[in-house]
Amino acid sequence: MASAIHHHHLLPPRLLSVHPQPPRLRLRRPLPRRAAAAGAAGTSSSTSAAAPPPTDAALQEFRRWVSSHGADAGAGAATPAAVPEGGLGLVAARDLPRGEVLAEVPKKLWLDTDAVAASDLGGAVGGGGLRPWVAVALLLLREAARGAGSPWAPYLAILPRQTDSTIFWSEEELLEIQGTQLLSTTMGVKEYVQSEFESVEAEIISENRELFPGTVTFDDFLWAFGILRSRVFAELRGDKLALIPFADLVNHSDDITSKESSWEIKGKGLFGRDVVFSLRTPVNVKSGEQIYIQYDLDKSNAELALDYGFTESNSSRDAYTLTLEISESDPFYDDKLDIAELNGMGETAYFDIVLGESLPPQMLPYLRLLCLGGTDAFLLEALFRNAVWGHLELPVSQDNEEAICQVIRNACKSALGAYHTTIEEDEELLGNENLQPRLQIAVEVRAGEKKVLQQIDDIFKQREEELDGLEYYQERRLKDIGLVGDNGEIIFWES
Hints:
By secondary structure, this protein is α+β, with helices and mostly antiparallel strands.
């Protein structure tokens, strides 16, 4: 990547003749667990290279609006400005020490569910039955429809019409992420937003034409979703979801590696009754330099691309999610589900695997459970119910261990075959400094996914080669009762 700076925009057995069904292993994530609502994102994104910056007049009006409400903390520490990477950011108006307050945005400027309730939209949306993100999305659309009459007009005027988030990509651009989990996640998110739109269009928008005088399309609703997805700060999600004007202009840099929060919500004024959102700089910044924060150290490149429309050239951002599932056709389905639930898991388990890191600790036991059958099925009996997970944390039998290797390796081979480029071809493309932003995102995501899949395959290939040297349940059990020596020899006693 040409620049490291971006916009925020997994006892002797009873002989059985029944063999388990192959476990279900999906290498696509449908609707992501954390994508069911906007605001499950990290922090905000001001704009994107996908959209031109606002006019100078709009920016000047926004600055006046911010200042008139004291949102700039009255100290002139930071000012909104067009930045070289494209779009807007916050620039230091003077030398700023680490921890300096940049903004104190009063609650009256926030767009949240309280603002919805207080607006003329409040009566239309009822008593809070809508998901918070849907309510706030409708508020965005309603205020946009009011034009200059909206109290948020200066803020709405500087919002981009798109980001580089994959939810805004064309069909041709989406072809570049063919075979990736990002593509299936993107399509799942858009289907989810479409479903929500159809519901609110029938129940709220069409019933309140005086509030929405123009035509509100799915693209309009998707825009509002994308704005929320890209601009809401990490902990402000769910019922706390809120857009914070001015503060949400701060951009992301992978040079900021601290997990320490750069903001807080606090009381101000007499008896601390006035609630404000306080933004601080996490590092020292020189006058005239752009101010950055870290959005979320735990997000993968695919998540960054979906939420904000950027990626990082950082292997810790390369990840792949294995979805394992106990098949309902498995003859031991009920027993396996019971064991999984006793150990904090369920019928389906998701394992996020990161490039260069070990497999998640629960993944191998869950895989062994899924593949358990034949002569190993005695471990599923009630006698072992409270101890079986401990046995699954170590190899059960060579057949079982071989099965998990085959299942994973076959799945990796299948997944790798779905991409239309190789890792080598992607690496060559990434050497081109003139890649368009969306192509850069596509290549980095698909290359990262393939590297993780190759890593997973290598781990289980090596495990296959070590099967003869592993110690299995029966050997461990015989050792426990003193029938096998430390070197594996059988111990006999004279009668």
